[in-house]
């Protein structure tokens, strides 16, 4: 049912007038930094030490914007007569951010936790070629990666911590066992010595 | 010699007002529109809340290249901004700020006629621009301008005639001398018609069909660049000032106010004008653009009958009280 | 009628200052008159349609200035309001709607220039003769207060010349009604013309002013209007 004629017009005026008295939502960006939400996808940081040059990220990238060069290094066998160990050494790791579509697949797919989302976003360049960032730059961004958000209070232990604890427990158990064995041996030796000393 | 000095001084003041007042309105529009949309508006130019934004705009416009399209009619194309702007300067000279001879640039006997006649010339500038640009969009804009002017000139004149009837004079100062507070409810319909028709004549939103950017780019001003474009913009804002001042003088009692000393009448005029300018901006932010047929319909089926009814009412009351 | 207003307040004949030793206002009057005449001549001789309309603005504006110089302020502003503000805009509107090319349009020239010139000269002669005959010995005192003010003009118009005024308004009303009737007649013609088509009669009946309508596309009508 149409109300009083012109009430719609008045309502329009009222809306704009009310908005005028409210606080503005303008973000004055260069003057004040924006408050980014957690897990913001700003840029991808590289933690080189974890990278094994498995090439999974480069292969899974939908845009093919990750460039990886590497070479093989052989190290002498740990024990004489053993096999020579070969290891991949990273030569180049670059991401072309003019192609990257920030899907995050590379980060998801990395089995060794070498790639991370950083909230850093101010890396505009005047030339598109300069948007291909090399490993040193990616490493710099690594230090801007925030700590992962805390787990829920009653959450399951993270897998890697569980695995590490398991390993540590195992090690501790082994050590304890060894110690016990050693102590037992010492005891036995003492006993043997005592037997010898008992009837010289 | 003293007379010459006096006239020169008055014209200089009018000229300064002519240059400053549209900028004030423009800056207010920047800020008010921004806040009505939840934004801040210009914040940098000049330091404090972007107060010098329009000065910066002017400097930018002055630096731009002045392009005249190859197929355009050069002379008419270049003349059009002046034709659009100058009438408003002339009109500003006759609008009385306060009582007496001291507060008006130049007294004109047939003030209403002068003002409305000269304002009509301004639209000729848009027509010239629209035709001379050799651009189909410009021509369409010019056509729409002409159609709009033809249909809205009539209600505007009728509404103004109603006030002239009420006051028994066509002089602007004469009308203000005759003003009494109860004219406000008496002439309210005429005031609304006059203001709406004036908005349409200025091609201000929501009546900005001639410059509808989503359809015909910028209408008659599509091909203009640099300073000439700036002149057109200045003409639009000068038009707002004129329209608001004129509505104030004709319908809102100009320098008359509920309180205040005798010497402060000009303050009332300025205050009312500023308030109306705010309303102009407010309307722009609030309403979408009218379609061309809606524009014509509003003029012929709403405003003209309303204006005629107002004239009848004015006549009846006038006869009754005399 | 326009010239009548100043004549009312004209001072008595007999002691007129004469044509020699003109005053500044008179010189200005002559110069503006020459400019107006020039603009008028260009209006009818230019080969560019829109330029002709714009020169007409200059000519009409010049006339307004002449009225001003004759202290007929009200007439001057009405001249600007009606002629420059409305008539010329209407003219330009019509030109733009039909044809307004940039540059010359020689095909718009009339074939009977000399007849037109003859008619123009004859009417000019008649007008000049009437005016000269009527105001031969009348002089306006230009130095005093404005004598063609709104009050004087209004009083003169509605006391002495009410009948011609009303006759003119009736004439205009007749023209107005005639225009409406003409446009409506065309419309009903279209309605009957396409009346054979299914469903177009209702359509054209409601739309006043859309004379070029030839029925909706896809209707079986052959479009008689084309």
Tag the structure with descriptive keywords.
heterotrimer, A: 200 residues, alpha+beta, Alpha-Beta Plaits, 2 domains, three-stranded antiparallel beta sheet, B: 322 residues, mainly alpha, 12 helices, 70% helix, globular
Give the arrangement of secondary structure elements.
The complex is a heterotrimer of chains A (200), B (322) and C (226).
Chain A: H1 7-21, E1 43-46, H2 56-60, E2 66-75, E3 85-96, H3 105-109, E4 115-118, E5 132-133, H4 135-142, H5 159-198
Antiparallel strand pairs in A: 1-4, 2-3, 3-5
Chain B: H1 2-36, H2 53-63, H3 74-92, H4 111-132, H5 136-167, H6 172-178, H7 183-186, H8 188-202, H9 213-216, H10 226-251, H11 265-286, H12 292-321
Chain C: H1 4-8, H2 24-45, H3 49-69, H4 73-98, H5 113-134, H6 150-160, H7 162-193, H8 201-206
Describe this structure in words.
The complex is a heterotrimer of chains A (200), B (322) and C (226). Chain A has 5 helices and 5 strands; from the N terminus they run H-E-H-E-E-H-E-E-H-H. Chain A is an alpha+beta fold and 200 residues long. Chain A starts with 6 loop residues before the first helix and ends with a helix. Chain B is mostly helical and 322 residues long. In chain B, helix 5 crosses helix 6. Chain C is an all-alpha fold and 226 residues long. Chains in contact: A-B, B-C.
Supply the number of structural domains of chain B. Answer: 1
In percent, how helical is the residue content of chain B?
Answer: over 70%
First-to-last CA distance of chain C? 47 Å
Assigned CATH class of the largest domain in chain C: Mainly Alpha
Structure class of chain C: mainly alpha
Mean pLDDT of chain B, as a whole number?
Answer: 84
- Biggest pleated-sheet summary of chain B: none
Secondary-structure-derived class of chain B: mainly alpha
Instruction: Assign a percent range to the helix content of chain C.
Output: 55-70%
As a whole number of angstroms, the C-alpha radius of gyration of chain B is 20 Å
Mean pLDDT of chain C: 72
Instruction: Report the end-to-end length of chain B measured between terminal Cα atoms.
Output: 45 Å
Order of helices and strands of chain C: HHHHHHHH
Tally of separate domains of chain C:
2
Instruction: Report on the biggest sheet of chain C.
Output: none
What is the CATH topology descriptor of the largest domain in chain C? Four Helix Bundle (Hemerythrin (Met), subunit A)
């Amino acid at each position: 049912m149409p109300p009083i004629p012109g009430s719609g017009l008045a309502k329009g005026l009222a809306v704009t007038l009310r908005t005028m008295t409210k606080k503005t939502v303008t973000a004055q960006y260069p003057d004040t930094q924006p408050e980014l939400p957690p897990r913001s996808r700003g840029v991808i940081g590289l933690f080189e030490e974890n990278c094994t040059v498995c090439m999974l990220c480069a292969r899974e990238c939908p845009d093919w914007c990750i460039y990886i060069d590497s070479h093989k290094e052989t190290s002498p066998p740990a024990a004489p007569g053993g096999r020579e160990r070969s290891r991949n050494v990273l030569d180049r790791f670059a991401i072309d951010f003019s192609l990257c579509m920030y899907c995050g697949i590379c980060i998801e797919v990395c089995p060794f936790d070498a790639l991370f989302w950083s909230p850093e976003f101010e890396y505009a360049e005047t030339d598109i070629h300069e948007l291909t960032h090399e490993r040193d730059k990616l490493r710099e961004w690594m230090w801007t990666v925030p700590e992962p958000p805390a787990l829920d209070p009653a959450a399951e232990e993270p897998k890697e911590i569980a695995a590490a604890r398991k390993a540590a427990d195992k090690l501790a158990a082994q050590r304890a066992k060894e110690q016990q064995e050693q102590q037992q041996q010492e005891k036995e030796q003492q006993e043997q010595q005592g037997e010898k000393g008992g009837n010289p | 010699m003293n007379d010459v000095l006096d006239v020169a001084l008055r014209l200089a003041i009018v000229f300064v007002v002519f240059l400053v007042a549209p900028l004030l309105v423009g800056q207010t529009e920047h800020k008010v529109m921004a806040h009505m949309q939840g934004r801040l508006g210009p914040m940098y130019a000049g330091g404090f809340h972007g107060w010098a934004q329009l000065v910066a705009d002017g400097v930018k416009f002055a630096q731009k290249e002045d392009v005249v399209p190859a197929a355009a009619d050069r002379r008419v194309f270049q003349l059009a901004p002046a034709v659009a702007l100058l009438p408003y300067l002339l009109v500003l000279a006759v609008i009385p700020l306060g009582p007496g001879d001291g507060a008006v640039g130049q007294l004109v006997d047939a003030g209403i006629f002068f003002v409305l006649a000269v304002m009509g010339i301004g639209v000729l500038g848009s027509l010239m621009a629209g035709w001379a640009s050799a651009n189909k969009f410009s021509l369409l804009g010019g056509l729409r301008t002409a159609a709009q002017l033809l249909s809205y000139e009539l209600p505007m004149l009728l509404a103004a005639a109603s006030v002239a009837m009420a006051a028994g004079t066509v002089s602007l100062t004469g009308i203000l001398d005759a003003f009494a507070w109860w004219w406000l409810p008496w002439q309210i319909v005429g005031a609304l018609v006059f203001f709406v028709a004036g908005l349409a004549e200025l091609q201000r939103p929501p009546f900005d069909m001639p410059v509808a950017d989503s359809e015909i780019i910028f209408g008659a001003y599509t091909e203009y660049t640099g300073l000439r474009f700036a002149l057109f913009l200045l003409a639009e804002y000068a038009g707002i000032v004129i329209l608001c001042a004129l509505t104030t003088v004709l319908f809102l009692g100009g320098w008359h106010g509920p309180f205040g000393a005798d010497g402060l009448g000009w303050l009332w005029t300025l205050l009312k004008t500023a308030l109306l300018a705010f309303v102009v901006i407010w309307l722009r932010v609030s309403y979408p653009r009218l379609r061309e047929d809606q524009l014509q319909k509003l003029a012929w089926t709403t405003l003209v009958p309303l204006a005629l009814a107002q004239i009848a009412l004015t006549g009846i009351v006038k006869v009754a009280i005399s | 009628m326009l010239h009548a207003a100043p004549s009312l307040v004209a001072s008595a004949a007999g002691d007129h200052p004469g044509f020699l030793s003109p005053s500044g206002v008179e010189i200005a009057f002559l110069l503006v008159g020459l400019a107006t005449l020039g603009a008028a001549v260009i209006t009818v001789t230019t080969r560019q349609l829109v330029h002709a309309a714009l020169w007409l603005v200059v000519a009409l504006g010049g006339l307004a200035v002449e009225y001003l110089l004759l202290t007929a302020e009200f007439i001057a502003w009405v001249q600007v309001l009606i002629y420059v503000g409305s008539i010329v805009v209407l003219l330009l509107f019509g030109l733009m709607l039909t044809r307004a090319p940039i540059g010359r349009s020689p095909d718009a020239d009339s074939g009977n220039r000399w007849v037109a010139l003859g008619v123009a000269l004859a009417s000019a002669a008649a007008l000049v003769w009437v005016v000269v005959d009527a105001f031969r010995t009348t002089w306006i005192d230009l130095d005093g207060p404005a004598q063609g003010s709104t009050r004087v003009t209004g009083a003169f118009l509605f006391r002495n010349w009410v009948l011609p005024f009303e006759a003119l308004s009736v004439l205009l009303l007749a023209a107005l009604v005639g225009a409406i009737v003409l446009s409506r007649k065309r419309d009903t013609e279209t309605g009957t013309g396409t009346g054979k088509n299914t469903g177009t009669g209702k359509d054209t009946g409601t739309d006043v002013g859309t004379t070029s309508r030839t029925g909706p596309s896809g209707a079986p009508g052959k479009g008689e209007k084309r």
